[in-house]
Every structure is written in structure tokens, then in C-alpha cells.
Design a protein that fits this description.
By secondary structure, the protein is an alpha/beta fold. Helices cover 38% and strands 16% of the residues. It has helices spanning 10-18, 24-42, 52-64, 107-114, 157-164, 181-187, 221-231, 239-242, 266-281, 294-319, 326-333, 339-359, 397-402, 407-411, 440-452; strands at 45-48, 76-80, 118-123, 170-175, 190-193, 213-218, 252-257, 285-290, 365-369, 382-386, 392-396, 415-422, 428-435. Strands 1-3-2-4-6-5-12-13-9-7-8 form an eleven-stranded mixed beta sheet, sandwiched between helices. It starts with 9 loop residues before the first helix and ends in a 5-residue tail after the last helix.
Amino acid sequence: MDMSLSTKSIKELSLLIKNREIQVIELMHAMLQKINKMNDALNAFITINPEAEAIAHEMDRQLALGNGEGALFGIPIGVKDMVYTRGMRTTMGSKIYEHFVPEKDAEVVKRLKYAGAIMIGKTNTHQFAYGPTGDRSYFGPMRHPYDTTKMAGGSSGGSASSVTAGLCSGSIGTDTSGSIRIPSAFCGLVGMKATNGSVPVDGVHPLSETLDCVGPMTKNVADNAILLDVLKGNHVGNPFDSHMTDDITDLTVGIPHPFFLDDINEEVEANFRKVKGLLRRAGVKVYDIHIPDVDKMLDAQKIIIAYESYQVHEENVNRFPDDWDPEVKERIEKSVQTKEAYTEALKRKYTFKEIFRTAMKDVDALVTPTISIPTPDIDQRVIHHSIGDGEKVTADVRSSITRLTAPTNIIGLPSLTLPTGLSNAGLPIGTQLIGKENDEAVLYQIGRVLEMQGVGE
């Protein structure tokens, strides 16, 4: 068994499969063997697809007949357990849905299957995706693949941990306040929250219907672009990937002030300074820009998610009061908001979008840290750390984790995180790129050039 297959990229594996240098079943066995070896420690998967091997055998038969189209043909992909999969249980990380088996696939799963992907299993999630730490699932906490005492991040922590550990070639997560980008940043992955509404959420259990997004989590930028193309409905080609170039000297990026660089841990800030220097050396023009009222955007985002999540979960909180993680239940019960406050927050979305459009009129993208603190321990809720000027501060873990990611959920802009270094403890640090509506290609282009410079090492 060639276990090195589990470390290869989607692009590499696709070429090996299509050139008949490896069999799909060979790749599947390598992944399943690694899951058997590592999943008890990581708790990344809740359910393994019992049909995965049979599907792999059938794909090899199709290849022998000269078939095998699709950008993801034979590639094992994990699916967050908020996303419905026909005939395979979908638990939402909860006791309430422990045995729920959907009758239909979510639209994104249909698109993955059409592109030839094999759903290898369902990845663990913070219960009902309502938490950024990834340590509140009915099935136990998701653990960091570098250090199992550390959180993998949430809510898509199982997706992140599984890809980093090589248990699947890529995974699908959901993102309402940063739940793709947060675990991707913690675990050293590339994660994309595309423009709101550009990837369908049909068949995804809702948390906050106006904020929820679905997106890819991968080892590198090119793989992320391939997956996003499929999720957007382009099943064969990969235009994001094919249009990326190594020359970004015609691009301009903005460093937004204030807010995005306030109260940043000193290790995160040092890493961000390095990234700015690398961008300048790559020929990118880097400017400081002013974006007001981001704190108000964050406040409005919290009102929207609180109101909408309560509407989703009110009935189950009342029907099954004992079947909740206490922390998640407390968040739901405290989520009661007036209809007036919610309506006002929705109205303000358009004002906030215009603020960003105005601020970004002369730049192609924004660059910020992804998370303001290093990776916390599992169950840690308060962190004591030093910010950029050496001042010692105490901060709430959950608020610190979502602070820099949540604003783009309310304004709907695409946001990409990629690994750009390591903390003193040897854990990944991420950088976030924010683009204009439907301009994911620019983010991939910038991310690829940073990746080529080895920033994540």
C-alpha cells in the first residue's frame, strides 16, 4: 500500500488516475487505512461511507472502458456533517439527529458526484455548526493534527483535521462567521468562503440562512480552485486554476485600518509583517486604507445569526431540552432578538457593503490576519497573551477567533485563508485575503504567488 498517495494534491492524483498509473481503489485503500489508523486520535470523521470501496472499484471499471470524465474523478472528498448525503447519515454533530439519514443529496454533493468525486465520509462538526472552537460535538471534540491537545477550530474542524492529516484529498465545509476559514487557518489549509450566494446551500442544514456559505478546504491553492469550480457548477474545466499566473505585479492590495490590526497577538502580527514584505517583493503595490464601522458590522452580524439561529432551533430546544451540548444550548437560548433589531441589522447590510465598495475602489483585494490569536487548547475559553506592543492582555477565545472573519459574512465578499507561517509552538498561522464580489480568481492568484514563496513553511 502506497501511503504517500494520501499526501498528494488533487491535481497530482487526478493525473495519476487518468494516466492509469494508479487505480482508484488503491487510492481509496490508502485513505481508509489512514483513517483507521488516525481517526480515533483526531475524531475528524463521524461516519465513513460504507460504499466507498464499491464506488472506487466501479470507477476503475469505467476507466478500463475508456470512461472517466470529471475534474474530481476518483478523488476522495470529505463532507461536513451539516451537508445532506443521500443514504448516509447526517448528524449535525448532535444527538437529536444521531440516526438521521437524508433521502436526497445536497446540491453541492450532487455537483461533487457529477464531477467524479467519491464521498469518503462525513466529517465532525461543532454541534449544529454553532461555534468556532470545534470542541462541542455530540461525538466529541475535533483535534488538531499537529497537537491533539489543541482545538482544530470550528465549526468545520473535522473537515480541516482530516485534510491536513491526509485522511481525504479535500473537504467541504460551511461558513457563517468563519467556519471554513478558522479551522483552515488553525490546521494549515487553504479555505475559501466564496461570494455569498455563489455556491448553493440547498440541502445544507441551516444555521443562519442569510449568512450561511459552503466552500472548499484543501492542501493548496490550485486544489481549492478546482473544488470551487465544481461547487459553482463547472464540472469539467478549472478556469480559476487555468487563469492563475505567477505575475501579480499589476495588482494592488489594501491593509485595512482600524479594527483588523487591533489587539493582534504579537506572533500573528510578526507573521503578517512578513506577508506584507513578501507581497511587496512580488511586485504588488501595498497601501494602508481606512475602513470605518467594522465593529458595527460585526455587531449586526451577531444580531442576524442570533435571530435566525433561534428560528431554526427553537422547536428542537423545546422538544429535546436534554439532548444539547450545554454551551450550544445556552447560545441558542440567549439568541433571542427582537424582530425590529433583526430587520434593522438586515437593512444595514447594504450600508456596510457600500462602505467596503468605496474603500476597495482603488485596490484589488484586502489582506488581513485570519485569526488574531494562536491556536488555543481544547475547551479553552479565555486566553492570556501578548499583543504587538508587548502588552499582556486577557481575551475571550470565541470572540477572538471570529473577530476578523465574521465581517465578510454580512457583506458577502469572498474571503480566502492560506497558511503563511508557524507560531512559536509550531502551529500554523493564516492570512486572509478579501476580494470584491465574484472576484475569487484574484484571491487565488495572490494566494498562489504567496504559496510559491513558501510562506506556510
